[in-house]
């Protein structure tokens, strides 16, 4: 179901699951030109909807919102306790050919002189990402990856992949001009959310396929 340029994936009395398009903020930013966002659009229809977590503006995919303060508290605790399982897909620069799960264990912190950028630093917060390859496309020097963040740091997937030499195509923050030019958008999508319902305890799993593929990779480097 389409509503206000987002897709409603699930609705009940306690929570909403939405598929956010790339290029839309999750919450309002600074300035009058950054007030349009997913939460504002959703609250026009569901006034009790409250933010629980966020995706970067450039990232598309599944976002969970609580209905009411009590559900927001319960869901926030589930995220903090790592009881919400998330999976992403990305198309990255270069050939990352690993069919077995690999781990990136690199602490992250704000790169204060270049905010909002993040950086890997031994003094940063522990940050862990698992990844494996779905497909490689040698003629395009690109790879389609499956990603599982075990922590939820800002820009975690983007920084971690850039750190191993496989920057996400279209990344305007962590990619050079060549990488940015290889896609019309950041090729990163939140594909899976899995959790227990905050009111009933029922196991729930939501999936949305990535809205991009090999055809969205622009030429060879």
Derived from helix and strand composition plus strand pairing, the structural class reads alpha+beta
The CATH architecture can be given as 2-Layer Sandwich
The end-to-end distance, rounded to whole angstroms, is 38 Å
How many distinct beta strands? Answer: 13
- The shape, in one word, is globular
Average predicted confidence as pLDDT: 94
Q: What is the count of helical runs?
A: 4
The radius of gyration computed from the alpha-carbon positions, rounded to a whole number of angstroms, is: 17 Å
Please describe the biggest sheet, giving its number of strands, its sense, and whether it closes into a barrel: 11 strands, mixed
* CATH topology group: Pseudouridine synthase
* Content of β-strand: 25-35%
Helix-strand layout with pairing:
Elements: E1 2-3, E2 6-11, E3 15-20, H1 38-45, E4 49-51, E5 60-67, H2 69-80, E6 85-93, E7 102-105, E8 108-110, E9 118-120, E10 128-137, E11 142-149, H3 156-163, H4 177-181, E12 188-196, E13 203-207
Parallel strand pairs: 5-12
Antiparallel strand pairs: 1-2, 2-3, 3-5, 4-5, 6-11, 6-12, 7-10, 8-9, 10-11, 12-13
Concise synopsis of the structure shown:
With 221 residues, the chain is an alpha+beta fold.
């Amino acid at each position: 179901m389409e509503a206000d340029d987002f897709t409603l994936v699930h609705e009940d009395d306690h929570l909403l699951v939405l598929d956010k398009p790339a290029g839309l903020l999750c919450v309002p930013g600074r300035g009058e030109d950054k007030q349009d966002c997913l939460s504002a659009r959703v609250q026009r229809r569901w006034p009790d909807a409250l933010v629980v977590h966020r995706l970067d503006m450039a990232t598309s995919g599944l976002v969970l919102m609580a209905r009411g303060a009590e559900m927001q508290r319960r869901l926030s605790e589930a995220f903090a306790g790592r009881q919400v399982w998330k999976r992403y897909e990305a198309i990255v620069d270069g050939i990352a050919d690993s069919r077995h799960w690999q781990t990136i264990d690199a602490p992250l912190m704000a790169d204060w002189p270049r905010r909002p950028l993040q950086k890997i630093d031994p003094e940063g917060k522990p940050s862990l990402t698992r990844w494996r390859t779905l497909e490689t496309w040698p003629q395009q020097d690109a790879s389609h990856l499956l990603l599982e963040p075990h922590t939820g740091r800002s820009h975690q997937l983007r920084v971690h992949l850039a750190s191993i030499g496989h920057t996400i195509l279209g990344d305007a923050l962590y990619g050079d001009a060549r990488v940015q030019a290889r896609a019309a958008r950041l090729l990163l999508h939140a594909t899976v959310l899995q959790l227990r319902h905050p009111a009933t305890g029922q196991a729930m799993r939501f999936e949305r396929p990535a809205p991009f593929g090999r055809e969205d990779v622009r030429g060879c480097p």
